[in-house]
Design a protein that fits this description.
Strands 1-2 form a two-stranded antiparallel ribbon. Strand 1 and strand 2 form a beta hairpin. It contains 16 helices and 2 strands. With 402 residues, the chain is mainly α. It has 2 domains: 194 residues, Growth Hormone, Chain: A (Up-down Bundle); 192 residues, Up-down Bundle (Growth Hormone, Chain: A), CATH 1.20.1250. GO terms for molecular function: transmembrane transporter activity. Keywords: Membrane, Transmembrane, Transmembrane helix. It holds the Pfam family MFS_1. This is MFS transporter.
Length: 402
């Protein structure tokens, strides 16, 4: 972790950028707590809850395409500011959802943050590649994983505490306040560290093809897809577990929705993953594709037990351990993407990998929506996971023949 602190100390602009993404994500996460809490209170069906995952995924796939076009034309921070403004305006949607008790509009609420994350993806990855050197990519991948995880942990953790205390509108006000703070930070960073527009070689990029990848670059491209294949069924179906358990009551008077507690435990595991990785470093063994597949198979086995066990506290512990493993792999995939692709390549191949990964999430969520209408969430999870495990082995063998 010393490398992480050293990098942030010597790159104040990146420290503030990380803080701004953390604050923005916490605001969105609080609103997500509101959405899932309201969906459960309105007694949304399993398919309606899984449909939320579908909304997020499809909007992200579409936004990634337009985000690439924006990155080629505009400066990164102009895109960041525009997206944060869009996120602020998008808070009008949950106002309407609350007024009408609309399950549909609560689902649509999570669409705007997903669009924004897709629009800034290429701009952010290219900004990092353009401003840092190879030795910086390991601590940066750990920082990004911690931010990604802390968003869920802090946002959901705060949401757990205040959900039964504050009225729903207070969540939206707080999200809006954080968006305003983030906009101020973005303007501050532009003055602290002026960044020129990144010049891409569009002619070179037009000749790129996934089919031409081989060796370490193919492995780098495939790794996020393996991660998505292993975790997508769990992400789509985990919220349905919240309906199986009553609220959790603690001796000091705190009452927590079981569904939100599941998301919170996921966040704990996601934060611990990169911290563990920061202690051991990204070694040659950890970057081995076979090791990564074994890690993700253990993840699938953990979730198989999660859908069988009837004790909520054991389930929460298993979710933590499962997501420690998944986020170790997530950090490694970020590191390999930065290390093994050039600036032009990362703008193309990271986007394609992310889009295909989201397509995997989309297929998984659609299957979940269909299956939970006819079978239990456990049966749906096992069915989709068998397909995922077959995909893991197929992709691994495909890489050997390239």
């Amino acid at each position: 972790m010393d490398k992480v602190f050293y990098l942030l100390k010597n790159n104040k602009w990146f420290l503030f950028l990380s803080i701004s993404f953390l604050l923005s994500g916490i605001g969105s996460s609080l609103t997500q707590v509101l959405v899932f809490g309201q969906l459960i209170e309105l007694k949304a069906s399993n398919s309606e809850i899984a449909f939320n995952f579908f909304f997020v995924t499809i909007s992200n796939i579409i936004a990634l395409h337009f985000g690439t076009k924006l990155a080629y034309r505009y400066r990164s921070f102009n895109i960041f500011i525009a997206c944060e403004l869009l996120s602020l305006i998008g808070l009008l949607i949950p106002f309407y959802a609350i007024a009408k008790n609309s399950i549909l509009f609560f689902n649509i609420t999570t669409l705007v943050p997903s669009i924004c994350s897709g629009l800034i993806f290429v701009s952010y990855t290219s900004l990092v590649k353009d401003n840092f050197s190879d030795e910086d990519f390991e601590p940066i991948s750990i920082i990004e994983s911690i931010i990604f995880s802390a968003v869920t942990l802090i946002g959901t953790g705060l949401g757990l505490i205040i959900y039964r205390i504050l009225p729903p509108l207070e969540f939206i006000y707080f999200d809006g306040l954080l968006s305003i703070i983030v906009l101020i930070i973005f303007v501050f960073i532009k003055n602290l560290h002026p960044i020129q527009k990144i010049e891409y070689n569009l002619e070179e990029i037009s000749n790129y093809s996934i089919l031409k990848l081989n060796g370490i670059k193919l492995q780098t491209f495939i790794l996020p897809l393996i991660l998505y294949s292993a975790t997508a069924p769990a992400m789509a179906l985990m919220p349905t577990l919240g309906k199986l358990f009553p609220d959790l009551n603690f001796t000091f008077g705190l009452t927590i929705s079981a569904g939100i507690a599941l998301i919170f435990s996921r966040g704990i595991g996601q934060v611990l993953g990169p911290i563990v990785l920061g202690k051991i470093g990204i070694t040659k063994n950890l970057k081995n594709e076979k090791t990564i597949i074994y890690i993700l198979l253990i993840f699938i086995v953990f979730y198989s037990f999660i859908f069988l066990i009837k004790n909520i506290y054991i389930i929460l512990c298993l979710i933590i351990f499962a997501h420690i493993l998944s986020n170790i792999v997530f950090s490694i995939s970020l590191y390999m993407m930065y290390s093994n692709f050039s600036e032009n390549e990362i703008s193309y191949f990271s986007t394609k990998s992310y889009q295909i990964g989201n397509f995997i999430l989309l297929i998984s969520s659609l299957l979940s929506i269909v299956l939970v209408k006819y079978v239990t969430p456990y049966t749906a999870y096992i069915t989709i996971s068998i397909a995922s495990m077959l995909a893991l082995f197929f992709v691994n063998n495909l890489n050997k023949f390239k």
